[in-house]
Design brief:
This protein is of the alpha+beta class. It is 28% helix and 17% strand. The protein has eight helices and 13 strands. Strands 1, 8, 9, 10, 11, 12 and 13 form a seven-stranded antiparallel sheet that branches. The protein has a two-stranded antiparallel ribbon with strand order 2-3. Strands 4-5 form a two-stranded antiparallel sheet. A hairpin with a 4-residue loop joins strand 10 and strand 11. The longest helix is centred in the first third of the chain and has 22 residues. It starts with 5 loop residues before the first helix and ends with a strand.
């Protein structure tokens, strides 16, 4: 039998220990470093949003003029803009999506889980308030495929429901920003939100599709170009823009499901690396800290767009 020196035994012991460590590491789930603070967006309760779905589909399919898009997307380094700028928080801070269950403005009890998905109409309402659009429509009834409810101007819920179910850009195949699937799944696409914004902001112009807003998916952006686009809209045009982001990164969400969520950007502060946004989904429907205005770091917001299950991007 072959004998082993003490040094040989020690070396073999170290090799065995190293092999054991490798086996243990392989048996564990080790997250990718850049995703350690943010899980990929998934299908949350009631939303049914598939990867990349918000950037495809929709009702209008209207092509914007290439010259308009070129001018819109042109970097403007010759214009010196402030390193921080904010729009007024009103009226955006007061906009609420109707909760999915409760009592409507006529005093009738209801439950409609389609309301879980109205961040598009909520963000659209918050954004259109800065275009001179009258957000007060009075009390009206609104119907989706599940129920009919009545809403008034409190928290602009009547206008939110108008955007969701009745706004009708001329190229749309049906009314409303929302596309309804099997209950309770529904969504609003980037294209439909863009078209409704341009339709309403332009006063229903026949050339609404080239009015102001355009869409850029996160794959067409860098963090620097994203900041530039925000800066142009807020500081130069004095208008808000909309972002789709994984709700995991939003500071107002509690136990976020990791789904795509539209918010309205109202300001930025590059000195402190932050942006300010309005939240329109409340505690009952989204388990947020409540509707209103919140601040997020630009790095968090950007990561939330990148890891938004193929649905991250801006309407600016």
């Amino acid at each position: 039998m072959k004998s082993h020196s003490p040094f040989s035994l020690v070396r073999r012991g170290k090799q065995a220990l190293f092999t054991l460590v490798l086996l243990l590491m392989c048996s564990l789930h080790v997250p990718v470093a850049h995703a350690s603070e943010l899980t990929s967006a998934s299908t949350g309760s009631g939303q049914g949003i598939q990867p990349g779905q918000l950037l495809t589909g929709g009702k209008g399919h209207q092509k914007q003029n290439p010259a308009f898009l070129q001018q819109k997307n042109q970097w403007k380094p010759h214009i010196v803009l402030a390193s921080q700028a904010h729009l007024s928080y009103s009226p955006a801070q007061y906009v609420n999506e109707p909760p999915y269950t409760g009592t409507d403005s006529a005093g009738h009890g209801y439950t409609d889980k389609y309301f879980w998905n109205e961040c598009g109409p909520g963000a659209s309402t918050a954004t259109l308030g800065y275009w001179g659009v009258n957000l007060k429509r009075g009390t009206h009834t609104y119907s989706d495929p599940y129920t009919t409810t009545a809403w008034n101007d409190t928290h602009y819920t009547s206008y939110v429901q108008y955007i969701a179910t009745q706004s009708y850009p001329s190229a749309f195949t049906s009314a409303g920003e929302m596309s309804y699937q099997s209950y309770p799944n529904a969504y609003a696409t980037f294209g439909d939100v863009r078209d409704v914004l341009n339709w309403e902001a332009s006063g229903h112009s026949s050339n609404y599709f080239n009015y102001f807003y355009a869409v850029l998916g996160v794959d067409s952006l860098t963090k620097a170009s994203f900041k530039n686009d925000v800066q142009q809209d807020i500081a130069l045009s004095k208008k808000p823009l909309i972002v789709s982001v994984n709700d995991n990164v939003l500071p107002d969400w509690i136990n976020a499901p990791g789904t795509s969520h539209f918010i309205t950007i109202l300001g930025y502060d590059f000195t402190n690396n932050t942006m300010t946004y309005s939240e329109t989904c409340g505690q009952k429907s989204c388990n947020t800290q409540g509707t209103g205005v919140y601040t997020i770091t630009i790095d968090q917001l950007w990561n939330g767009m990148v890891y938004d299950n193929g649905n991250g991007g801006i309407i600016w």
